[in-house]
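Continued from yesterday's entry.
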Amino acid sequence: MRKFLKHIHLWLSLPAGIFIAVMCLTGAVLVFQQEIQRAVSPGFYFTDRYREVKEPLPLDALVCAAAEELSGEGRKISSVTVYSNPESTVAVGVSGQKGVYMTIDPYTGEITGKGAPAGRFFASVRSLHRWLMLTGTGRTVGRTIMGISSIMFSIILISGIFIAVPRAWRNVGQWKQALSVRRGKTSSVWWFTSHRAFGWCCAVFLLLMSLTGPMWSFSWYRNGVAAIFGIENMNGGKHGNGKGTPRTPVAGQPQNTASAEYVFDGIDPGIWMKVIAGIKGLEPEAVSVSLKKETATVVTAHHHARASDTYRFDPDGNITDVQKYEDLPASRKLMGYAFLLHAGLWGGWIVKLLYFIACIGGAYLVISGYCLYVRRIKKMPQAVSTTRETPDRVTEGKRPNSRHRE
């Protein structure tokens, strides 16, 4: 069995190793994306004006300032996110683009940044991580390659664990030997012992990443994971009205007739102010409120990083529906939990640091594995030549004796 697992471990590692190294190195960068962006441009995310000004400006004034900045670019405001933290800036999203496009100082209305810091860099890293930076129809090919490589990585890790377990697994001395890195007469000793030791140290975190990764590549894998946990209807519909049924729009609803300068992409910031006031009464622990045309996404202090409540409101700003995260079906929560495990968002900066180390260790496992294989290939001709020379040497050694006897 151990010999069979060694073959599996080797022959899966050879073709998938390059892609595994790419996944690990790009993953190491993405683990601390938020921290890096905030360190590069703290003014984009935070302001110190709250020490001088006690109350922020009205939201409609902030949105108007953002609209004036965007008027020459032909862009429309699609969302605004406000935070309970007085140090945070207000984030603005625009139509046709994901994420935060610009931020505003809530106390002065000043534009504090446009375009997420190092946004293009991290977008490229994420593209390389997910689909090898391929575009168009090639993106599907890249996603498939990375998904298969992730599955192969899981098998490689599991087989490596079984191979590395000492035969006398109850012997503490053998475990110490398995976890130690040694130098020998040749570099093979270092490569082998470090490969085994680092594999043990990183295996758990690498498995969490490799087992969850294919959920973004293959629907059959995602459905299979859901079936394991007894979750049905992974292709369920969108948010309902709190009872699990779609909300039907009421015919003839009055449309807001605010002046054009306050209406952007069908949105009235005055209505947003009314919605925020209503949400604050219902969610006193709200950490952030992200407002769109008809919905508001609310993150509270007791939510994890991928959880939020959804509020729906009518054109007059009256809240008509509340969808609590706790009431969502398990099928709607699965991908959120998968992302927590995949990105290391479940244990604070300590877990993020462990994930970062594991990603670097995963890349090192690929390098050390290839080095061991290369040295093995180099030794094969020597072994063959030694085998061929052995009979001649034996014969040559016997000739003098035979002549002496004669």
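--- second protein ---
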Amino acid sequence: MASKKKLNEYCQAYGLKVSYEVVSEEGPPHDPKFTVKAVIGKKEYPPAEGRAKKKAEDAAAKAALESIEKEGKPESASNVQPSLSLLPPAPLADVIEKKPSPSRVDYISLLSQYQQKNHCMVTYSEELQSGLPHLPEFTCSCKINGKIYGKGTGNSKQEAKYAAAKEAYHRLMDSENSRTEDQPSIASSTADEFSDTSESVSNFAYSLNSVDTGKTNDSSSSCQAISRNAVVKPKRGGVTLAPKFSHPETKKNKYTMNERFLKDFEGIEFIGSGGFANVFKAKHKYDEKTYAIKQVELDDKVKREVEALSNLSHENIIRYYTCWSGDDFIFDENNSSQRNCQSYSCLFIQMEFCEKGTLTNWIDKQRGKQHNQGVSLNIFKQIVKGVEYIHSEGLVHRDLKPQNIFISREDKIKIGDFGLVTSVKDEPRTKNKGTKSYMSPEQDGDTYEQEVDIYALGLIFFEILWIFPSAHEKNKLWPEIRKGTFPGAFITQFNAEKYIIDQLLSADPKKRPAASKILDLLKITSKNSVTASHTH
């Protein structure tokens, strides 16, 4: 996994966030093939393949590194939030291979290590303060557990962040070394926020002193570097001068450090991830009900999702309860042994938890079994009812697929994941939004309406009627299914259903029936198919 490690080090050096998005998953369970792409900031890099998800991610990281090398400069913060640095960035090889110069201490990494060791929250808030269009000046604040410890300015956001981290670091050092009443410590002035200093803080301060004398670690070292370096503990008197960040519950959970999440919920379990979101199963401490908690980095897209969910109320839509924002790290299931030192502003969405999983799980369980056609029709009818309601609210889901359709304990179908939802009034549309294998042809462009959801319904209807014996078989035939070319046995056995699916998959979006019309067609089909069963 050398390439992934190098890319992580590169992004850490420039204060960027890298994530990996699964483009497709093909092949049978015993021999899968993953296609993954790396995303840095808002830029997507070329996809790569691998027989395991981790190998595909490493291949994607390698592809991203090669692209960055060709460009001759890093995809720095200027790509995500435009800025102009006075100096050109260091070459990628220097970032990855060379240790930081002793003349420039990496304060950002040191504070990240401090955060990891002491289970506190170090965050940065950045904004454009002033300056000319070609030479902006940014300001940044460094907060530790919500309290400002440092402020800085610079001609790029990264420089401002560095200056803020430097001031915060020195303030921590001053508080550790201060002894006199005319130089009150941070701890003494904020007794309501912090308790007495701990052994770990003293060790950390000693480690930072060693860095200032040139004994700095590589900026790419792990979050445990401070712990390893703090071999000798300086002796202290009885007066406490440095803050201790006490979050006892945080130590008990590897998935989150968010205060509200830990305070209100217990039994937190990671159950999945997708795009830039993690989903957890957790039991509320007070009502003792189990919920799905979606954690996603806060941006306009997730705000749109919450707004849509909060306004929807239907038996076939995942129920929204509440949400809250707060800082947290992003758990990586592929590197669960070590926390991500970087903290982000996140939104937590509390939703209904469906015990029986996704429609994908249901399909997998039906493979090779005798299957009741009436059950499939009932499932599809509920999905269509949910889509009819979504469309009646003036929305387009844009990402309907079995993975985003859930089944409750009572076998009630629930449509979820509104991360790509958009209003029919929004213009222009975003190109290539959705999952490729279920996207309508027109989604390659920027002009499409609610009919994109109808196309996806056609594919889902076929998939739950004609359950493939394996994922490999599905992947082999799927391109033809998308074109409306079906196996001969399917046409013979499901002639009435084929008539409906042909309309749903029409190349002309305007010829696809509305959801309400589909329900009318299903009423006729259901009368003739309730007791039929098949296997193939």
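DSSP finds 18 helices and 18 strands in the chain. The two ends are 41 Å apart (CA to CA). Will compare against the first tomorrow.
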